[in-house]
Amino acid sequence: MAFRSTGRSTGRSAAHRAALGLAAMGAALTAQPAAAQFFWSPPDFSTPPLTDAEAATALGLPGATAAEIKAGLVWNLRAALNVAALQCQFEPTLLSISNYNATIAHHDAELDAAQATLLGYFQRTVGKGKPGQMASDQYGTRIYSGYSTVQAQRGFCQAAALVGRQAIFAQRGTLNEVARSGLGSIKKSLILAGEQFYGDPGRSYSLALPSFDPKCWKKGKMLPACQIAWNQKIGVQP
What we know:
Strand order of the largest sheet: 1-2
Structural class: mainly alpha
Number of strands: 2
Low-confidence stretches: 1-12, 15-35
Number of helices: 10
Largest sheet: 2 strands, antiparallel
Distance between the termini: 88 Å
Shape: elongated
């Protein structure tokens, strides 16, 4: 007997196809990486992993051994995520604070070892005892300051959040690998870069104001010479 569809079954079939279509659309959307909290089309902060030579220069550790470079990578990543936890709280969905706290808890042994190794580096290159300790303290202050930004804050917070998420899921003892792969993008994000598709009209807007020199005003009105100069500045045609 030939199968004959009814209107009811056709309706169900259409609804089923629609549901499948919506599910496929949802899967396609979820499969794509998030465009970012701040951008429709975010800047490209991707960088290749740092080599030992690049890391020694970028981290300010000339003459460092391979073990000291690993320690520097770990300690710099800790500093970057710490700064993000302090500066990126304006966007809670980045989870900057929880990412940092989870990283510290999950990788505490590697962080402790990195701190000790870096102290050894400065005691070797600067001097044992107080000189090495002072140089190590100054280095810590310097790298924290290096990750602080104002104008590029949005890009930095986005890049740090992505690397921070990788850090909390990395196996213990591999935080140096996360840092080697991710620190370049964090450092790149410190250079101001805004929305790539639509531009950044809101943040790049600057307010033009007339001169407030007392010579330009009389009884609350701008004098003609200053008015002409002001019109030329803002492009008003006479």
